[in-house]
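In this section we walk through a basic example: taking a raw amino acid sequence and producing a predicted 3D structure, encoded as discrete structure tokens. The instruction is simple. Fold the sequence below.
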Amino acid sequence: MPRRGRHAHGDASGHVVRDRVSMETVTQIVDLADRHSEDLDVVLLWGRQTGRLWVDVTHRQTGRTARVNATATNALDVFHHPFAYAQA
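The resulting token sequence is shown next.
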């Protein structure tokens, strides 16, 4: 799944680290888990500096992405059932 403004590389733990580049700062984003179906890509992400967790769900055909915020206690559930947590 292409992502603009990010460069991927492995870290010491084997996780893929993406450096999100903006005009002001560089923030490290870590892919904690990903899964793919016929039409969706689902990725659990963690902001290394902020501690923030979220799930990006991308529809492959349209390229539309939904971002669903998560907490440490519900991150895996959000990853497995993102539409149950998405706000209407």
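Looking at the output, two observations stand out. Residues 75-80 form the longest helix (6 residues). The chain has one domain: 6-85. In the next section we compare this with other chains.
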